[in-house]
User: What shape does this take?
Amino acid sequence: MTVLGLFRDEWVKLLARKRTYIGFGAFLGVQLAILGLLQHPRAQGQIGELLGDNGLGFENHYMGLTMAVVVIAFTYTLLGALYVALIAGEVIAKEVEDGTMRMLLSRPVSRMKLLIGKSLAVTAYSVGLVLFLGVTALAFGTAYRGGLGDLFIFIPEEQLFARYDTGEGVLRYARAVACLALGTVSITGLAVMFSCFDMKPAAATILTLSLFFVDLVLANLPYFQAIQHYFVTYHFRFWARTFHDPVPWPAIAGSVAYLLGWTATFFTIGAARFCTRDFKA
Assistant: This one.
């Protein structure tokens, strides 16, 4: 069986599981909650004050594009990591726990091909989750405010304060969502690696989230600002740096290379363990 065929089979299995859709439902709920709370006069007053202090009009910038960036910036790092780890962390471990792994390996297919097929399926899920968030956040924000408007973005930890007209804002938003999807692959790789070891699916998910959040906390400590480029979550935020003007492409390329390097390392370690495990015990 080819890798493409294995990917197709794994994708069908993912779509058949109810927990696959938990992340999509959670993002819809969070988006509606954020947009609902933004109707509060105090929330709108604070945003209006921030815009006014910088000479920007409230009606032009408090629109769909700005709302979409707010939703992504304040939800994905936590919720996205959770649901990606939940699905990727069980890709191998769940099969072992259910006793179906030995049946899969009884087919004329190598372990490496099987692992690649499963990894591609959960990677496609991760990318799909990000794209779903990007599309629905923009759609809900636009419907909520009645238009796209100009883009205003403010992310203090990235020293980012920028505004763009509608056309430029849409292009930069689409590019940022694509970059976020690319960065998510590193979380997927870490979860798949743990899933290859002898542990329960929940343990693989918890270990992935633990390492991710520890890295996130350390990267945001002011004492480690001089060495923050060593942390994965610092490079994970490269999607936000695409909003800078001019765009720091060399730094972004370095972050992408760093994340892909770690992803390749995670896959190599996981593959080494998966290909040598004894599933008969």
